[in-house]
Amino acid sequence: MSILGDLMGAILGRQPAPTSGQSVAAQSQAPASSSAAETAPATSTASPSKVDVEAVLTEKASKNGEKLNWRQSIVDLMKLVQLDSSLAARKKLAQELGYQGALDGSAEMNIWLHKQVMAKLAENGGRVPQSMLH
Known about the structure:
Blueprint: H1 3-12, H2 24-28, H3 34-39, E1 51-52, H4 53-62, H5 74-80, H6 87-97, H7 107-123, E2 126-127
Parallel strand pairs: 1-2
Helix pairs in contact: 6-7
């Protein structure tokens, strides 16, 4: 399972559409997170509804005892959806998304990852505020 797929499932309640390099079979093997499915609206393959990413994450944050800066931090975003946010996990995510820089956990890498994840959420049926896309 991909880390991006896990993020999509936790936030959108479904897996992302396959991109080049991803197989449809790999996308369909992982179940969606039950907690995300409870907060995200039901969708159909014919006409997926837009999931308000900010609302879903804000609700998760309100139930989380830790103050997380998920709007800007990939580490905090991953923690919020209960995914491994270690450097190894972020390196894997960076490789999945095609990051070309050093896989060293730098601020540059982490900022790039956050923007790419938000863009992928938007591409896959998420309504993401413009401020999180730039």
